[in-house]
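Hypothesis: this fold can be encoded by more than one sequence.
Test: take the structure tokens below, design a sequence, compare later.
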């Protein structure tokens, strides 16, 4: 508990310092799209409102564009784990507007209850601008895995997803993604395997971050905060 509190305070200090840097766009992270009040849920109504605002006022881009183009209006959309509600509630608006978005798949959740099936993912890859990415083979705190086990999870996830879906995987998002969840060594090892490594810091992207891309979790509460910030 003391160690966790230490990293929470360390992350808050890091975020405070990094906010002073210039803004190069934002990356948004979604989980479930439903009417629950949890920290990882956003209603379909709020999700659609948010996406429609982005379509009309921002540039929804991929990681390559975000990291190479210093444009404050660039935003990237990502989905973690990935829940079936992405297919049932979000797919239509993403598809009809030809929006690029990332599916960070945790291999152990594939084809499980409430999560995407292989068939649904193939449909999203074939019919829309979905980009397949890794969320590790197992959804665990990386910091507490030994190095060999951590690297094995990265390679196992990448290889299995590439083979199954015939796509190159060059993006990775840490499960949980906080300073407590993953160490600097974890970040360095992930950067050797993937071109883009995502964390969970509520910050805009800045090129000075080097190996990491911060992401902002969007739920019903942070959705309202971001909409207020836009205005």
């Amino acid at each position: 508990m003391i160690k966790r509190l230490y990293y929470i305070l360390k992350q808050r200090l890091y975020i405070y310092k990094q906010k002073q840097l210039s803004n190069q766009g934002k990356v948004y992270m979604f989980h479930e799209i439903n009417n629950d009040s949890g920290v990882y849920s956003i209603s379909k109504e709020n999700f659609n409102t948010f996406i429609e605002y982005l379509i009309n006022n921002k540039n929804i881009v991929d990681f390559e564009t975000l990291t190479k183009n210093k444009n404050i209006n660039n935003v990237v959309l990502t989905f973690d784990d990935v829940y079936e509600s992405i297919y049932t509630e979000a797919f239509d608006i993403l598809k009809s507007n030809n929006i690029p978005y990332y599916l960070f798949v945790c291999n152990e959740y594939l084809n499980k209850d409430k999560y995407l099936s292989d068939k649904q993912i193939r449909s999203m890859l074939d019919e829309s601008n979905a980009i397949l990415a890794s969320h590790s083979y197992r959804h665990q705190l990386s910091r507490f895995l030994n190095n060999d086990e951590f690297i094995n999870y990265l390679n196992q996830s990448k290889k299995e997803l590439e083979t199954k879906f015939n796509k190159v995987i060059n993006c990775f998002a840490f499960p949980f993604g906080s300073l407590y969840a993953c160490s600097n060594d974890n970040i360095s090892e992930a950067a050797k395997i993937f071109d883009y490594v995502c964390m969970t810091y509520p910050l805009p992207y800045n090129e000075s971050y080097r190996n990491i891309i911060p992401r902002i979790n969007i739920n019903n509460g942070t959705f309202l905060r971001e909409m207020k910030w836009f205005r």
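The longest strand covers residues 74-81. The chain has eight helices and ten strands.
Hypothesis status: open.
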